[in-house]
């Protein structure tokens, strides 16, 4: 178990053998470990207006402690990198020198080490769908649906409506049909339906970063359906014996899909911040 003493295991401790092994590997060899996080619902509490989201200050402070001890930190998010940088204020934090942000599920990238943003042009089909959405929403008799235009993707938000889950259910079929007509997909999330190119996902994004950095241990924390491909890719890599993996689920009343697949379960971004503070203590950072 290397340097790890049992008293140093951050609570909640992993409930699986694989997770326990990954935590031991992280604590004994942090320089060859990567910690990767989803943004909304994981580092950031969920709010009605996506423009009002912000990263938890306590999580940021814990990551600033952990950052210099580990090989890599990453935020792997559905947000555009520019939005993640604005809402997370990651560029202003001194301890995050090894941070990379993989935005729009891995289509975009920003690295703290260079400050360079890579933002490829969006598929034209997204603008076509964007133009058709207001009429579609009207035809379904829905008012108050918020449209978030991310250029590479368009997100319909029903949070804050009188029946948000009902409105999401009404939207899903017709929006999927419209997306398909344009060679895109409609992906559900926590009270959202997102239209985007489905060929890019967080699993591919993480695989790329793992092979680039050569890390041997990966911790990934997420809360929603968009994090499932990351869970699947990392579980496959773990089963292949390539890397040690610790999967953290940030559970909520809205979404529990990751819970049965996780090694560690916390409830909401506040409990994740608690866990990260304990991890920083355990690492001695
Ligand atoms: O990969 P993520 O970082 O989790 O981003 C996925 C989507 O999250 C955002 O929506 C979620 O957070 C909003 C703000 O708290 C909330 O209002 C919404 O109900 C949640 O689903 C974001 O707005 C999307 O663009 C992201 O794709």
UniProtKB/TrEMBL annotation:
Alphabetical GO biological process terms: trehalose biosynthetic process
Catalyzed reactions per annotation: alpha,alpha-trehalose 6-phosphate + H2O = alpha,alpha-trehalose + phosphate
User: tRNA-binding: is it a keyword of this entry?
Assistant: no
Entries under SUPFAM superfamilies matching the protein: HAD-like
For whether the record's keyword set contains Hydrolase, the answer is yes
Cofactor(s) named in the record: Mg(2+)
Instruction: Give GO MF terms, alphabetically.
Output: metal ion binding; trehalose-phosphatase activity
Residue ranges crossing the lipid bilayer per the database entry: none
What EC identifiers does the entry list?
A: 3.1.3.12
> What keyword terms does UniProt attach to this protein?
Hydrolase, Magnesium, Metal-binding
The biological pathway it contributes to is: Glycan biosynthesis; trehalose biosynthesis
Task: Give the protein's function.
Answer: Removes the phosphate from trehalose 6-phosphate to produce free trehalose.
Name the family the entry cites: Belongs to the trehalose phosphatase family.
Concerning PANTHER family, the annotation shows: TREHALOSE 6-PHOSPHATE PHOSPHATASE
> What protein name applies here?
Trehalose 6-phosphate phosphatase
Q: Which organism is it from?
A: Mumia zhuanghuii
Classification of source organism: Bacteria, Bacillati, Actinomycetota, Actinomycetes, Propionibacteriales
Gene encoding this polypeptide?
otsB
């Amino acid at each position: 178990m290397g340097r790890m003493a049992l008293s140093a295991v951050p609570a909640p401790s992993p409930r699986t053998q694989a997770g326990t092994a990954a935590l031991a590997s992280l604590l004994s060899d942090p320089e060859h470990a990567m910690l990767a996080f989803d943004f909304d619902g994981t580092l950031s509490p969920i709010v009605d207006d996506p423009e009002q989201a912000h990263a938890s200050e306590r999580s940021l402070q814990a990551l600033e402690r952990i950052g210099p001890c580990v090989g890599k930190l990453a935020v792997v998010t559905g947000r555009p990198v520019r939005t993640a940088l604005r809402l997370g204020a990651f560029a202003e934090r001194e301890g995050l020198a090894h941070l990379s942000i993989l935005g729009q599920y891995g289509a975009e990238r920003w690295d703290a080490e260079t400050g360079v943003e890579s933002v490829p042009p969006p598929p034209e089909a997204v603008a076509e769908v964007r133009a058709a959405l207001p009429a579609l929403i009207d035809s379904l008799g829905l008012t108050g649906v918020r449209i978030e235009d991310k250029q590479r993707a368009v997100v319909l938000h029903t949070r804050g409506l009188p029946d948000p889950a009902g409105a999401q259910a009404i939207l899903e079929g017709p929006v999927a049909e419209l997306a398909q007509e344009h060679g895109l997909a409609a992906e559900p999330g926590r009270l959202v339906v997102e239209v985007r190119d489905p060929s890019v996902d967080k699993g591919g994004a993480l695989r790329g970063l793992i092979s680039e950095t050569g890390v041997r241990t990966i911790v990934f924390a997420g809360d929603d359906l968009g994090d499932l491909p990351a869970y699947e890719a990392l579980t496959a890599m773990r089963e292949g014996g390539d890397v040690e993996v610790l999967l953290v689920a940030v559970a909520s009343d809205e979404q529990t899909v990751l819970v049965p697949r996780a090694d560690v379960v916390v409830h909401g971004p506040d409990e994740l911040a608690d866990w990260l503070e304990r991890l920083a203590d355990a690492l001695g950072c």
